[in-house]
Task: structure prediction
Amino acid sequence: MTDDFPTNQIYGFALSGGTGRILYGLKQINCCYLVYSNNIEHYLAMLLHDQPSYVLGLGTYSGADQDQIRIETICTNQFRNDYVDGNEKQKVTINSFLSENSQMKLAEATGNSHCNLVSCKIMQLINQGKLNAQYTFLHIPKRMKPWVTTETIDQKLIEFKQTLQ
Result:
């Protein structure tokens, strides 16, 4: 990282399912990226090159509890009922840089989707010391209005940035 690259950058990415509109509506994000199954490795390479301080991921959630944004606290090495690495399930803790409040709650439900795959790969890079960043993944309820979600996440990011000063 060069001396002229700003510190405390927050990079955000969104997976398919409508979260792109939310991501690009966030005012507190320094770099936005839409991640699809065919560009995951490109995004990871960009993170390694740029070394942002914080990475925020967004994905949709269609399960129960549609009243709160879910802050995921674990991911696994599973993707579509296969293992990304190894022959057995491994849980990896995600130490989110955002905390829960009345609109956001801690959860453990990344499942075996692209949300989990990308989270697992980012956490591997962090745990290997290759990516010097903190990571948060938010599952956005499908029923939540995009403008409400954007406002909620932006407010939480403002509060987080105030703790850094």
